[in-house]
Amino acid sequence: MVEEENRGREEAARGVLQGIEESTPVAIKELLAGGVAGGVAKTAVAPLERVKILFQTRRADFQGIGLFGSFQKIIRTEGVIGFYRGNGASVARIVPYAALHYMAYEQYRRWIIHGFPDINRGPVLDLVSGSIAGGTAVLCTYPLDLVRTKLAYQVIESSKLKFTGLISSGQVYHGIRDCMTKIYRKNGIKGLYRGVGPSLYGIFPYSGLKFYFYEEMKSHVPEERKNDIVVKLACGSVAGLFGQTITYPLDVVRRQMQVHSLSTSSEGTAKGTFETLAMIVQNQGWRQLFSGLSINFLKVVPSVAIGFTVYDVMKSWLKVPAREEISIKAITEEGKSHASSSWQS
Is 245 left (phi over 0), alpha (psi -120 to 50) or beta? Predict the structure, then answer.
């Protein structure tokens, strides 16, 4: 009797979960899958991201000591937790960013197919959809990216419990909320979006190229191997590598604009994207535009690979229909709607 009651409860619970699963809109499932993928991927490469930012922003005490020297210095001054300084803001940004990015990509792709049913369903469609989706996600989450960079730029000497590398006024950020509040009080909304120009210039081609290369590579994979996780990881790695290399200089410009007010060694003043780009080339040399690129290769390969793979796995786990099934269903429903309207008139 007891076993039958337990079995009945389990079946009822499964029925409720199945009902929730079936009633949940596809866009919500894609948001959830994208958010999980972004959070997992970003946390996995947080130590390399911290060192990359320190290189990009030319902290004097991190110049010329290399990757392993930087790791040793962070461990010596801040401990292991130093590798994850700013990662809270990073994850807080990347979860909504990745969720919006993947969901918007899928949505824009569906809208384009819906508006132009005869369009080629190849990688060019992914390039356009990915580019627009990247811009949408950046505009929605940029203030958190700015906060993440400022927090990561600060270095704490553990023995003195003091922040170093800051301007003489001693402005210190003690967390995400504190940093965002101080920026807003000083410069308003404009301050929270400082550096958004190069972010948009960079994300449009990077996001589009990332999806383009990923889908292009998958199109050459035999059908029976497309669900292989190793294959997904390989396709994602190459996609991230190519996309990031092409757009990396704009990432350097963005980082330097974000930390300009904190740096003790800022050469001159630069208000915009192109002024900052010219200043970097003139005062720091063109090689600075690729500073930290080798670390970025180490970071991007696992990050993009993990991101795409976790996203695909999450979509499968959440039972998100294949893209073509969703597109065909939307077009069919639209056709029925038009037919019904014509019949009634």
Answer: alpha
Sequence spans of domains, the chain: 27-317
- pLDDT per position as a tens digit, 59-110: 666 666 666 677 777 777 777 777 777 777 778 778 998 999 999 999 999 9
CATH architecture of 27-317: Alpha/alpha barrel (1.50)
Going by C-alpha positions, the residue among 91, 47, 41, 65 that lies closest to residue 233 is 41
DSSP track, 1-41: -HHHHHHHHHHHHHHHHHHHHHHS-HHHHHHHHHHHHHHHH
Q: Which one, of 101, 92, 201, 74, lies nearest residue 146 by Cα?
A: 92
pTM assigned to the model: 0.69
For residues 91 and 185, is the Cβ–Cβ distance under 8 A? no
Question: Which of 33, 142, 148, 131 is CA-nearest to residue 97?
Answer: 142
Beta bridge partners of 162: 157
14 contacts: CB under 8 Å, gap ≥ 6? none
Take residue 195 and report the two structure tokens written for it: 């550096």
